[in-house]
Amino acid sequence: MNGPDPAGPPSELDKLRRRVEALSRKRDEAEAQLHALLSSLLPLDDLLADTRRRTGALHEARSAREATAAAVALSEQIDAAHLMLRSEFARHDVRPMEVVGRAADPAEMHVVGTQAHPSAPDGTVLRERVTGFRLGPSTLRPAQVVIAVPGPAPESDPVPAAEDGPGPAASGESSTDGRRAQPRRTTRSQRKLPRKPSAGRKHRSRPS
């Protein structure tokens, strides 16, 4: 028959010490994760700094060719920065929500607008105003969405019909073949302007 445990049950002091040690480990893990996250964002800061320099090159371009090249490079920099940020999000299990085409869910979406749609079911997400994100299975930030409501699609504004008036030649607009139309000459009678009275000529008397 076994005798009583010489160590005895853990005292309250031992329980408190174990809790402190567990909290200390969690704090160290949280600090390590934060340090890793901030370190991973440093290359993004470098990329954004280079993007600012390329923006300055776009403003200082002296020709259309230089401006086009600078704009293309700037667009590539912005895309690279966005992809880098999304990659770091994914490493930490932060992912954007895919809500377009789904039914609006109040648990992870905020409806900020509606739009009539002839075929989409009522309450279907048509587009995002603000992208929502998840941290693991939980919602990190709700998405702000525009949902469909029954009704005809909104019509585009009709193009106003051309009123009677001077054609492209008189208004200075370009013709269909790309050449600038010349103004048509009109006579005074066609313009229905009153004829100016001619000044009477004075006849000099011949010396006798």
Key attributes of the depicted protein:
3-stranded mixed sheet, 3 helices, single chain, alpha+beta, 3-stranded antiparallel sheet, 208 residues
- How many distinct beta strands? 6
Largest sheet: 3 strands, antiparallel
Task: Give the amount of beta strand, in percent.
Answer: 15-25%
- Report the principal-axis shape: flat
Order of helices and strands: HHEEEEEEH
Widest β-sheet, arrangement of strands: 1-4-5
Number of helices: 3
Distance between the termini: 174 Å
Fraction of residues in helices?
25-40%
Which spans have pLDDT < 50 for at least 5 consecutive residues?
162-183
* Helix-strand category: alpha+beta
The radius of gyration computed from the alpha-carbon positions, rounded to a whole number of angstroms, is 39 Å
Mean pLDDT: 77
Biased composition (Basic residues): 181-208
Coiled coil: 13-40
Keywords: Chaperone, Coiled coil
Protein name: Nucleotide exchange factor GrpE
Description:
This protein has 208 residues and is an alpha+beta fold. The protein is 38% helix and 16% strand. It has helices spanning 12-59, 64-91, 168-171; strands at 94-96, 109-117, 125-130, 133-135, 138-141, 143-150. β4 and β5 form a beta hairpin. Mean pLDDT is 77; it is low at 162-183. Keywords: Chaperone, Coiled coil. Residues 13-40 form a coiled coil.
